[in-house]
Design a protein that fits this description.
- There is one protein chain.
- The chain is elongated.
- The chain is built from eleven helices and five strands.
- A hairpin with a 3-residue loop joins strand 2 and strand 3.
- Strands 1-2-3-5-4 form a five-stranded mixed beta sheet, with helices on one face.
- It is an alpha+beta fold and 393 residues long.
- The two termini are 51 Å apart.
- The protein has three domains: 172 residues; 68 residues; 124 residues, Heat Shock Protein 90 (2-Layer Sandwich), CATH 3.30.565.
Amino acid sequence: MDKRHALYSWVRNNPFKVDLIATGLLFLAFGPVYLLADRPLLFLLSCSLLVPLAWRRIRPVAAAGAIVVVCLVQWAFAVEPVVGQLAVPLVIYAVAAYGPAWASRSVLALGVVGGVLLTTRYFTSPSESGILGLSIGVLYTVLIWMLVVVSWTLGDLTRVRRLQLQALEDRTRRLEIEQHQERLLAAADERSHIAREMHDIVAHSLSVIITQADGGRYAAASDPRIATETLKTIASAGRSSLKEMRRLLGVLRSDEQASTRPLPGLADLDELLLGFRAAGLPLRFEQSGTPRRNLPSGAELTAYRVLQEALTNVLKHAGSQAKANASMQWQSSGLRLEVTDDGHGAAADTATGDGNGLHGMGERISLYDGSLEAGPAAGGGFRVSAFIPYTEA
């Protein structure tokens, strides 16, 4: 099935090569007949009619013009019909299918006129007169007209189908662009909405905390019990703010319930890797270098999520026999993470996802001025490489 689709795609994308091959086959099929019969003039005439067929789709008007000129010369000098005459219905079909509308109508009219000229020149005999001769001429003319009309009709149907397919392709392309823009606008609107809610919560909570802290600081000098009550109020406001922020951030993920456990970091990598090995993924992990200083907790969470997402993609998409290698290297300027596999490609299906996967990795890393590289590995499989600098954005 894939080979057939590939062949169809090549034929569709290379019309000149296909027509050139077809013209060459026609030469091989009909050219030697006249050479073996020692009739070089008819061979040249046949070649002159067949050669323009190589341009019948990319230059249909020029090909039709060349064939018309050859036919007129043949008619003027009363040269007998040749095998190359089959180029006439082929070029009528090509102009009707691929040429402009005016050229399509013109070849139809020329075909009708040419049928009459061909009949009067070759298919009527001076010895046959009266009703019999007229009947034979009319019969040949009608047969030629039928061939012309059928060729033109098939070409016109091909033109209609081609224009319909092109319109559908254009519409599909526009719909994809519109859907992409709608997703971007929806995501921007949701981010703006969440940002406003978080701003309101944080601003209100911090205002309460700052006010209580300033008041408690001055009141503590005269009555330490007021300071104790003030600290309780501050703690309560902080907990309430944290709870609301967790609720808002929780809706950004598909989890049914936002987790209340501490956020993971690099210290939890052993547990993460153990889970993937238990799931059946052959995994090799290497760690090298010494950190110059600790990464912020958010950067550690980003590193954890990058490894988690990359290994999850390996488990999902790389195939049942795939093996993975993960490494964490501390460099002078930051942390380098790399995950490779020898399977079918760990991110084969993430491009059509809903914002997670590689896109989610890139967003996380960009918050800390990091970089992400993902793509097919040189020796096969897939490779994800991320770098997180020490400086926090």
